[in-house]
Give the backbone structure.
Amino acid sequence: MARDEKIDLLRTVPLFKGLGDRQLERISVLADIIDLPADRRILSQGERGAEMFVMVRGSARVERDGALLADAGPGAVLGEIALLDGGPRTATVTLAEASRLLVLARREFQTLLDEFPDVRLHVFEMVARRLRALDREAVH
């Protein structure tokens, strides 16, 4: 994929909304774009996480203990929790259809968060929303 095409693709990802050309150029160096087939498992609950994914195109099923938690589509960020704390994956994610994904390995993810405070804040806000959604009856 050409560099300009990759940057244009990054512009469509909500996680990177508001970032400038220089920042998107840096992310294009840190991240890879991959195309995977339907029914491919990209995360397995309980396993150690080595990368995170951002859905660019396609959809996926997010399950915990065999129960469907959510369907994920374009813009969804998957696997960031294990990269934040170094712990095991909290869910299993299987692609529901052929999908295009942005992938960042742990080291690149940490570099991204260190270099771009806006992205760091956005990732933390997403994690907080997910935690709240897990226990809707808890007092917040």
Notes: The chain has one domain: 3-134. The domain at 3-134 is CATH 2.60.120.10 (Jelly Rolls). The mean pLDDT is 87.
